[in-house]
Design goal:
2 strands
Length: 90
């Protein structure tokens, strides 16, 4: 094992239960830089839009409905759980 690898392994072991520190180490190892991707246009309901408010609203709708769908699915399954099959809890 190279000295660099040993060094980073020790750092990662010390950073257990410290997610922010762990991610900073990962960023250092991978030379990742924070990048910001600006979305200038987006296809919303088969129409190209460059309106930032419409784009933000589309993202909001997409992500909030995804959480709502998971909640509804899990809530409706609670009454139909097969206790011998652990996958039904997901």
């Amino acid at each position: 094992m190279s000295a660099k690898r040993i060094y980073f392994n020790k750092l990662l072991l010390k950073s257990k239960k410290k997610p922010k520190t762990t991610w900073n180490i990962v960023k250092t190892i991978t030379n990742s830089k924070n990048t910001m991707n600006n979305i200038s246009t987006m296809n919303i309901n088969d129409k190209l839009s460059s309106n930032p408010l419409a784009i933000a609203s589309a993202f909001n709708t997409y992500f909030s409905s995804g959480a709502e769908n998971v909640f509804i699915k899990n809530f409706s399954l609670k009454n139909n759980i097969n206790h011998s099959d652990p996958i039904t809890y997901l």
